[in-house]
Structures are given as structure tokens and as C-alpha cells.
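forwarding from the other thread:

> can someone predict this with guanosine-5'-diphosphate?

sure thing
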Amino acid sequence: KPIVAVVGRPNVGKSTLVNRIAQTSDAIVHESRGVTRDRSYYDADWCGHEFTLVDTGGIEPMKSEDIFSASIRDQALAAAEEADVILFVVDGSVGVTEEDESVARMIKRAKKPTFLLVNKLDNPDREQERLWEFYSLGVGDPIAVSALHGHGTGDLLDDVVALLPESYEDEKIDDGILSVAIIGRPNAGKSSLFNKILGSDRSIVSNVAGTTRDAIDTVIERGDKKYRLVDTAGIRKKSTVYENIEYYSMVRGLRAIDRADVALLVIDSSTGMTEQDQKVANLAIERGCAIVVLLNKWDLLPDDHAREQMMETVERRMGMAKWANYLRISALTGRSVEKIWALVDSAAQNRSARISTSKLNQLLTDMREFGHTIVDGRRRLRMHYVTQTGTNPPAFTFFVNHTDLINDSYRRYIENRMRATFDFKGTPIRLRFRKKD
Ligand code: GDP
């Protein structure tokens, strides 16, 4: 999907704007829930045009004033590099600041379609001159918006989608080779792992061009199996500032995940599993990738206590995705790296599973007899039947009498029952509910 990045210095209202756009656009669909709700990216759909909206504000690490502007600049630069369209937000109630100017310089270099959005003008008609001031940034016509009130977001979205590239549809390559993405935070050990995999005697390696832009994939052959490691140029490119920016690794991850069947989520065990790791896991799950969580740098954990502690954090952070596969590895020593492929294969297999309608409905019968249901006043949830409506990942549609009675905990309950009955280890599954009287 094309990426629309929202950039600007802190406190100009980026997150409010992102939320506003998210609410305005038709469908923000999250059928398969990930492990965290807190997000800085949204899959949005405006009049049939799908795109991913990335809020760089959600990932600004800065607290101190000094590192602040450098970090904003880097964010802007990385955002500009990766995005298809940039929404540059400034604060109309404050006027042009030095930081705005430095962000503007980064954006201009990128030569991407940019919208200059002047936020916090609650009365744009009377505040025209405040708007004009922003012409000095040199990134085009300032557009008055009110993130808070939502003025103009519909028009803005029309203009944004008009500029999105069309060519993203055929991104998934369909040549029967399993696509695997190596994702994770900067320094988790992605490129070390990649090199270890390539260096293995068992792998025969070839580079192939990806379908889009500068994507380079690597196909490895192991015995009679082939795997496509997607976007490996991104892993190799240890470029200056970007590689250390969470935003960059996230967006890179997004691109890779879009084209992958299985995601290898590399975690740095020496620093523990962080919130950002959780976000990256979430991206993969929501986009329907099977995941194998690689607890890398296991060699750095000094004792059993540290190892136990690490496992506890992982369990807590991945609470909603207990079904993932875990492997303790060391990309440095090569420990357990060979074991990755068996987990990839089984996760991929489960991801393409088909469950017969009769087995599904047997489960439904069991649930009716022994399970919970939901009662709300005089209404009682009744599930009539269920059928599989998709694979990769498996999707199931339940026909029920009242869809609004299904809440999160009931969804989880059904998912748990499904997982206890069928083998979905390693893969997300999607549950949909349709009304039928
Ligand atoms: P990337 O940013 O995710 O690609 O991470 P790199 O592969 O560049 O690794 C970051 C640093 O961690 C490098 O100094 C690696 O040598 C080191 N590293 C990676 N994997 C391991 C590991 O399993 N054990 C140890 N001790 N160090 C590792």
C-alpha cells in the first residue's frame, strides 16, 4: 500500500490530525487484532483508494531539547524518503518556527508530493494573513485545517488519494515461492541474521529484483524448498541516519510485510522486548503474516534469571498472540538459526489451512452445548453456522443473529476455541460476523 506520512515538529497536532483522517475515511478495518492497540499507523481507505497513514509523532523519542531538533530533522528525512505523499503539519497559532524551517528543508530535498497543512486556525476566514506567512517555507500553498474540528479533511483526502501511485496492487508476487520478511528494530540483529542465513552451506542464494521500486529480494534454496527473503536491500543498507530511526525500520517493515507470507520478527534479547517490538509484531499480525519470533542475542543473557525475565516480558508483550512461534537464537554464533525454517514451514502451512465446513460446525455445536454465550437484556446471541471464507491467513465467517452482541472478549473466546480445536500455530486467523436471522 502507498504510504502517507504525517510529519512536523511536536505539538502541532499531528496525532489529532491522523485520528481525524482515520475517522473520516471509510474503513479502518482490523479484523485480526494484534498485540497492542496503541498505534502510529493506520490502514485507511478513502473512496476505494487504500493507503497507510503513518503518524511520525507517535514515535518521536525526544524529551530533551537538544536531541530534539536533530531527531525531528531525521524523522522528517526518513519519512520523506519512504513516503509517497507527505502531510507537513505546522501550527497556525504560533507561526513559522526554526524547526518548521528545518523540517521543510528535509522535505524539499525528497521531492515528494507534499501538502502544507496549517493547523489550529479555528477561523481561517479571519486569519488569512497567518496562513500566508507559511508560504515562506517554500513547500507550496498553505492549506488551513482544523484537526480538532475536522474542517476540510474530506477535501484534503480527495487531493491526497489523487496523488497516490497506482502501481501497488501487484506487489504480491505469485510464483509459489514462500515470501519471508526479516523485520525488527534497528540493531536487533536483522542483517547479522541475514548474513548468517546466506553464509550457511545449506543455502543456495540468488538475487532477484522485486516488483516495485528499488526492492531487492533474495531467493534461497534449501534442499527442495525455496524461500524469498523480501526487501533484503533494506536490511543490507546500513545508511547513515535512517537505520537508527524507529520510524524508518517500521516503514521498511511495513513494505516488507505487505509482500510476505511469514515474518521473522527479530528481537534483541539483551535489551528485552520493547513497546516498539510489540508494534512491529502488530503490523505483521494485522496484515495477515504468520510470525516467528526470534529472540536474538540469546548468548548475551548472563544467567537463568535474565533468561526467565526475558521470557516473562515476551509473554506479557505478546499476550494477545500466544500462538506465535518462538525461537531463541544467536545470529552471531549461529545457534538455532537452522531451526528457523521448520517453524517457517509449519506456520506457512497453517496459514494456508482449509477446515471443512462440517468440522467447523461441529465446533459450533460443541460451543452451543458447552460454551458461553452472550445475553443482553432479552437478546441472546445465536450463532447459526460458520464457514471458511479465506486462506492465507485463514478467515472464517460466522452467521449470527445479532452482530452487535459480539464484543472483544467473546471474539477472543471464539478464537481460543478455534485454536484449541485446529492447528493454527504461528498464523493469525480472521473472524468475521454477519447477520442472519
Ligand atoms: P540490524 O540493525 O537489525 O540489522 O542489526 P545488526 O545485524 O546490524 O546487529 C546489531 C549489532 O548486534 C551488531 O553489532 C551485531 O554484531 C550484534 N549482534 C547481532 N546478533 C547478535 C547475537 O546473536 N549475539 C550478539 N552477541 N550480538 C549480536
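Residues 184, 186-192, 296-297, 299-300, 330-332 surround guanosine-5'-diphosphate (CB under 6 Å). thats all i got for now
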